[in-house]
Specification:
- Helices cover about 30% and strands about 25% of the residues.
- The chain is α/β, with parallel strands linked by helices.
- The chain has two domains: about 140 residues, Cytidine Deaminase, domain 2 (3-Layer(aba) Sandwich), CATH 3.40.140.10; about 220 residues, Dihydrofolate Reductase, subunit A.
- The strands form two sheets. A nine-stranded mixed beta sheet has the order 10-9-8-7-11-6-12-14-13, sandwiched between helices. It has a five-stranded mixed beta sheet with strand order 2-1-3-4-5, sandwiched between helices.
- It is globular and about 65 Å long.
- The protein binds ligand AOF and zinc ion.
- Zinc ion (ZN) binds next to loops.
Length: about 375
């Protein structure tokens, strides 16, 4: 049976939703999903596993011993054609006599890059490309950037009062509601690393964990940008470093004793070069994170650090949570706060999505 175009969209959408579930869980490998369909019915499905193995196609094909004739595979990324840590998915699809493969987007990995599609076609498999491609591209954006040697995907999280004043880092009590905070934790779960500045550690002493029920094991690596190595030894991040991982990125300096002290607590200290203003070079920091296989980075503050990343043109998306409270009008905005507002005013932040979170709102902006 030949499935219609309508079916292609439907099943690919289902596959894309599955792939989205494992974002932040698959290491430097992208999260991919494969849905096997026969007679308009799903007969199996798979998503890339934790740490990037097994591949989605392997999971889907291994769940079912005998495939019905004319099975169609809906795959969110072109199947791999090489043997790496995992066997070639293209070879597996051919061996299992899949009749048609519908693909959302091509694999930018130079080891694949169209060869998966070519091999399938050469072996008589019908291939349909580009179905719901923009959604798939968003899911694999961090991977696409890093495989090309570019910086990881960098997203910034900000919270502000209704009148636009950004929540200052010294504000201990929450102004956003619990739904906004849950969404914030969900963002933590689908990024590979959370980055904060050392001042946020000193003022808030955060744990930066994902505390959503069922997703607690998805807490990403924590990173502190700390030019002068002053992260407090008794901070929650340092105390938990052994279990949850902590990287401190500092500028080049001879402070071996301090480094050894942090390392004794299970912290990894990495030194990079400094910018003219004496702070850590953020481009170099991102390069270090890319080399460590961290493809999606969430900047959680403070506003100075976020605005520095924005100023250098390093940010992909801004997640802006808006509370239902007004701030007092005597609040002075920090430089970082003012910079964020300036970008918004100058239309450098293009609205991509707006989500209602009870009496709060989340606006997602693409940085242009
Ligand atoms: C797929 N299905 O689920 C994923 C793919 O070292 P390996 O063997 O794991 O290969 C890694 C590459 O495979 C990765 O860079 C990307 O090109 C592709 N990812 N391919 O067929 C999957 N995650
Ligand atoms: Zn594969």
């Amino acid at each position: 049976m030949i499935l219609s175009c309508h079916d292609d969209n439907f099943f690919m959408n289902y596959a894309l939703r599955l792939a989205a579930r494992n974002i932040g869980l698959t290491g430097k490998n992208p999260s991919v999903a494969c849905v096997l369909v026969s007679n308009s019915k799903i007969v199996s499905y798979g998503v890339t596993g934790r740490g990037g193995s097994p591949h989605a196609e392997f999971v889907a094909l291994n769940k079912i011993k005998k495939l019905p004739p004319n099975t169609v595979a809906y795959i969110t990324l072109e199947p791999c054609s090489h043997v790496g840590n995992n066997p070639s998915c293209t070879a597996m699809l051919i061996k299992r006599q899949i009749s048609k493969v519908v693909i959302a987007t091509n694999d930018p990995n130079p080891l694949v890059n169209g060869s998966g599609i070519k091999i399938l076609k050469d072996n008589g498999v019908v291939v349909e490309e580009g179905v719901n491609e923009p959604i798939a591209n968003n899911i694999v954006l961090g991977f696409t950037q890093t495989i090309k040697g570019l910086n990881p995907e960098v997203n910034v999280k900000v919270a502000s009062y209704q009148n636009g004043d950004t929540v200052s880092v010294d504000k201990k009590s929450w102004i956003t509601n619990s739904l906004s905070r849950s969404y914030g934790h969900m963002l933590r779960s689908n990024h590979d690393a959370i980055v904060v500045g050392v001042n946020t550690v000193k003022l808030d002493n955060p744990s930066l964990d994902c505390r959503l029920p069922g997703l607690m094991d998805r807490s990403p690596v924590k990173v502190v940008i700390d030019s002068n190595l002053t992260t407090p030894m008794d901070s929650v991040l340092v105390k938990n470093a052994d279990q949850t991982g902590l990287i401190i990125i500092s500028k080049l300096k001879n402070n071996k004793d301090k480094v050894l002290q942090y390392e004794g607590e299970g912290v990894e200290v990495i030194c990079v070069d400094a910018m003219e203003n004496g702070f850590v070079n953020l481009n170099s920091a991102l390069k270090v994170l890319r080399i460590k296989g961290l493809n999606r980075i969430l900047i959680e503050g403070g506003s100075m650090l976020s605005s520095s990343f924005l100023d250098k043109g390093l940010v992909n998306l801004v997640y802006w949570f808006i509370a239902n409270e007004e701030s007092g009008n005597n609040k002075l905005l920090s430089y970082g706060d003012r910079y964020l507002h300036k970008l918004k005013k100058e239309s450098k932040l293009k609205i991509k999505d707006s989500i209602n979170l009870k009496n709060n709102k989340l606006e997602i902006f693409k940085v242009i």
